[in-house]
Structure formats: structure tokens, C-alpha cells
Design brief:
The protein has one domain (4-262): NAD(P)-binding Rossmann-like Domain (Rossmann fold, 3-Layer(aba) Sandwich), CATH 3.40.50. The chain contains 9 helices and 9 strands. It has helices at 13-24, 58-66, 91-119, 140-160, 179-182, 194-209, 214-226, 240-249, 252-262, and strands spanning 4-7, 28-33, 49-52, 73-76, 82-83, 122-127, 165-172, 184-185, 233-236. The strands form 2 sheets. A 7-stranded parallel sheet has the order 3-2-1-4-6-7-9, sandwiched between helices. α2 packs parallel to α3. The longest helix is centred in the middle third of the chain and has 29 residues, at 91-119. The radius of gyration is 18 Å and the shape is globular. NADP nicotinamide-adenine-dinucleotide phosphate (NAP) binds at residues 8-15, 33-34, 53-56, 77-81, 100, 127, 129, 172, 174-175, 177-179, 182, 208, 211, 214. It comes from Nocardia callitridis. InterPro entries: NAD(P)-bd_dom_sf (IPR036291), Sc_DH/Rdtase_CS (IPR020904), SDR_fam (IPR002347).
């Protein structure tokens, strides 16, 4: 039986790698892009059918969801990275980020859940971020979206798992994709945060450039999808097993100092 998977944001990075990995596993894969018609060959994962979806646009979500037939697997991957001191983030930028990283994925999930429940099979993967578990400065809006996404996933899985529908969060650490070039940054002129923000972002970009490959994340996503009883949370990259272990044993204040030091921030 050929299962159908939908992967949002399948034109680059993690989404493209997940789409390719699912094709290799024999899934029929529908990948999304805001502009599928203008994707270059190298942006397309072979064997994937590309459809239009803008997750910041509720009408686009409805049209896309209405065009779906059977969906066995949904990977909510499309997302944006945002940075800036909390006090300086424009309201509309924060709202856009929550629509793209949280409300859109939640709307898509709600659209496919009834069919999955009826067929007694479904897998939903929310691509979060380790930042959702290990907050960092100047990333408050992004951290909050990823923590919110994990909240939706880990709570709703209790509701749906009795029907064979498993919702899982996958939190990648640093992954070497083009995300950092597309990151939206907000810093006002003469901001008191300029020095720390600039140093932090340089370190962050350097760490992301040294991050794991999108294919490595795709392996974890596929493992979550193919598990009989997927775990609530998978993490990959940025020494995830050590970080989660330390978080369990160290006081939060010590953990916070360790993270600050690794990014060259004084506390
Ligand atoms: N890279 C990392 O280090 C890292 C770490 C942890 C978590 N993540 C998460 O992993 C996911 C993928 O990140 P990535 O690094 O692979 O990023 P990426 O290379 O920038 O890819 C982002 C994808 O999202 C799509 N997208 C962007 N805005 C969209 C919108 N408004 N509506 C629909 N699709 C949209 C893009 O497609 P089009 O431009 O074709 O529309 C693209 O395919 C994100 O959720 C990110 O937060 C990344």
C-alpha cells in the first residue's frame, strides 16, 4: 500500500531532504512551495509533486487543504527564522511569524486529522527547533513559536493516538541550510543591544554553517514517521542527547550560563 505524505516547504533545506527521503521509501509525496511554478530544477526533489501553499495566507491554506485527498503523513516543516531584541520586534513581524510557524501548521493539521482518524492511521510531524527547548537571547519570537508548536503536538497526541494517529515534534539543532540567509532581523538604529546582538548573530551564523546536513534531519523525521508508536519528541544535531541529559540533571540557572557562554554572552 502506497502512503501519501505532504511536506510543507519542500523547495529547500530540511523539507526538500525529507521529501526526497520519503520518495526513496516509496511514499507518494506532495511537496509545497509558495511559487512551485518558478522552482528551478535543483530546488525540486525528484519524484515529488509540487503544489502552491503560502502558510502566512489563510485562504491559501484552505485552497491547498481542499485539494488534498487521502493524507497519511503530514510534515509541517515550512518556517521562518527571526531575530531581534524583544523590545524592538515589530508587532506585524511577530504576528507573521506566529502565523507561519504555529497557526498555519496547526490549521493544516486540523484539516487532515479527521481523515486520518477515520482511516485509523496518521502521522503528523511538527518540525520545531531545539531553540524551543533551549531558549536563547534575540530569538524570543522564534523560540516562542517553536515551543508553541511543540505544545500543540505533545498535547494533541494524547487525543489522537488512540485512533492510530500520532503527532510528534522533531527538534533539529543547527542545520546547514540557507535559513540563515533568509532570517529576518530587527534591530533599531542606536539600539542598546547592537554590540551583543551583532556578536551573537555572527556566532549563531557560524554555528549554523557548521551544522548537520538536512539529510541527517530527514533520517530522524522518517524514523519518527515509521515508528509504530512515535515518541513525543525527537531531537537531532547540536549534541542533542548531551544537551537534553544536561538539562535533566543541571539546575536551570547553570544551564542558562552554559548556553550564554557558548555564544560568547556575558551573564
Ligand atoms: N536550519 C536550521 O538550523 C534549523 C534548525 C532548527 C529548526 N529548523 C526549522 O526547520 C524548518 C525548515 O528550515 P530550513 O532550514 O530547511 O529552511 P529553508 O531552507 O529556508 O526552507 C524553508 C522552506 O519553507 C518554505 N517557506 C518559507 N516561507 C513560507 C511561507 N510563507 N509559506 C509556505 N512555505 C514557506 C520555503 O519554500 P518557498 O520559498 O519555496 O515557498 C522553503 O521550502 C523551519 O521550520 C525551521 O524553523 C531549521
Amino acid at each position: 500500500m502506497v502512503r501519501t505524505a505532504v511536506v510543507t516547504g519542500a523547495s529547500s533545506g530540511i523539507g526538500k531532504a525529507v521529501a526526497a527521503a520519503l520518495v526513496a521509501k516509496g511514499y507518494q509525496v506532495i511537496g509545497t512551495s509558495r511559487k512551485p511554478e518558478s522552482l528551478r530544477d535543483e530546488q525540486r526533489a525528484p519524484g515529488v509533486e509540487y503544489r502552491a501553499l503560502d502558510v502566512t495566507d489563510t485562504a491559501s491554506i484552505s485552497t491547498f487543504a481542499a485539494g488534498l485527498d487521502v493524507v497519511d503523513v503530514l510534515v509541517n516543516n515550512a518556517g521562518e527564522s527571526q531575530a531581534g531584541p524583544l523590545a524592538e520586534l515589530p508587532d506585524d513581524a511577530v504576528a507573521r511569524l506566529f502565523q507561519l510557524n504555529v497557526l498555519g501548521p496547526v490549521a493544516l493539521t486540523r484539516a487532515v486529522l479527521p481523515g486520518m482518524r477515520e482511516r485509523r492511521f496518521g502521522r503528523v510531524v511538527m518540525v520545531g527547533s531545539m531553540l524551543g527547548s533551549f531558549p536563547m537571547p534575540y530569538r524570543s519570537s522564534y523560540v516562542a513559536t517553536k515551543a508553541a508548536l511543540r505544545g500543540f503536538a505533545t498535547a494533541a497526541r494524547f487525543e489522537e493516538s488512540p485512533f492510530g494517529v500520532w503527532i510528534t515534534a522533531v527538534e533539529p539543532g543547527q542545520v546547514n541550510t540557507g535559513l540563515r540567509e533568509r532570517r529576518t532581523k530587527y534591530l533599531t538604529e542606536n539600539s542598546p543591544h547592537t554590540t551583543d546582538f551583532t556578536a551573537f548573530m555572527a556566532k549563531l551564523d557560524q554555528k549554523q554553517g557548521e551544522g548537520i546536513t538536512p539529510a541527517k534531519v530527514a533520517e530522524t523525521v522518517v524514523r519518527a514517521i515509521e515508528a509504530n508508536r512515535p515518541k513525543p519528541l525527537y531531537a537531532v544535531g547540536s549534541a542533542a542527547p548531551v544537551m537534553f541529559l544536561l538539562r535533566r540533571v543541571l539546575p536551570r540557572s547553570v544551564m542558562e550560563r552554559l548556553i550564554a557562554r557558548s555564544y560568547g554572552l556575558s551573564r
